[in-house]
Amino acid sequence: MNQSKAGYVVEGMRASWLVLAVGAIVMAGCGQGAALVAPGSTDVDEPAAVVAERWRATGLSEEWARGFVPREELTVLGKDVQFTGLSKLAFVAGRWELHADLPGSAPSHGEIRWLDGTTMTLPLLPASAAYEEMSAPNPHQKCAPGECGLLTVIGARLGEVQIQTSRGPAIVPAWQFSVRDVPGTFSRVAIAPTATPPALGAAEVNGYQPGEGTTVRLEYMSGSCETLHRVRSFEADDLVVVDLDVGAVDGVCSGTALGLVGATQVTLAKPLGDRILLDASSGLPVPYRVIQSPAMSPPDSSPSPPTVESPTPDASPPDHASLPLRTPSPT
């Protein structure tokens, strides 16, 4: 992801996190809800404490739990977009031109709808501002004139698009742009996101769903010859940190297939409730989603890899059906 283009990186915080990581162990025993312990234990887990204190220092817990925080790019390509070689290069490089009068009027506010039925109404960006964000050049992908194509916008209308947020999938208002000679719709989210911190690393846990009692279902990614060795959780009054150990079955993995989806569950000392669930690897909250994996994989339950399913490239995620899009407004 090009985080600077997506527009939700908090500038000036990276250096402070280095200091925070050094001091987090000292801070872990201080403050209400600060200590993180595994169920049935009183020992503070130091790596989990670093993750927890880093997150607490951002002050974003309330926004992630109840606000609008996108977890993907704000420019969304429709499944009907058909690139040519040059037009694809133009999109990657951010080469755009405007040959249309963009709508000058639009509703002042728009509604966001989440999978759990909650909604939020926020101010909308005008079409011109959405186009400026979408058409920003990519500083990491440059090409000389003639080497790339040029995407020419010939119209825009207000519609909706589904994106992943800190609270799971949501339907959000979006400006939908038509491009000359490129079939399909280019959507740009029409609501400005809240700033969020960059990740510590790649996420291990891709989604969670509360189970019965104190259990929480977890979805994760693995390779074709990997298995789930261990699942750990560390709890505090305000959050829970989950850590998965996924690796080769016999210590060596010769397979090449990646992106397989697995599911497991963790049992907490008390129900998750309103507490934020943090991924130990990325340091960021795990998004809620309906987990459709065919079987739950207990750690090291057998020498074979866990039951997994390969996502079908042309199929919509299972939870998309629960969030129908509304008919776009006329041009």
In short:
The chain contains six helices and 13 strands. With 331 residues, it is an alpha+beta fold.
List keywords for this structure.
single chain; 331 residues; alpha+beta; Lipocalin; 2 domains; three-stranded antiparallel β-sheet; 16% helix; globular
Task: Give an overview in words.
With 331 residues, the protein is an alpha+beta fold. It folds into two domains: 3-65 and 197-279, no CATH class; 70-193, Lipocalin. 16% of the residues lie in helices and 30% in strands. It contains six helices and 13 strands. It has helices at residues 3-6, 14-27, 46-58, 61-66, 85-93, 127-134, and strands spanning 75-77, 96-98, 109-114, 119-123, 151-165, 168-179, 182-189, 205-210, 215-222, 226-235, 239-248, 260-267, 276-279. The strands form three sheets. Strands 1, 2, 3, 4, 5, 6 and 7 form a seven-stranded mixed β-sheet that branches. Strands 8-9-12 form a three-stranded antiparallel β-sheet, with no helix packed on it. A three-stranded mixed β-sheet has the order 10-11-13. Helix 2 crosses helix 3. The radius of gyration is 22 Å and the shape is globular. The two termini are 30 Å apart. Residues 296-308 have a biased composition (Pro residues). Residues 290-331 are annotated as: Disordered.
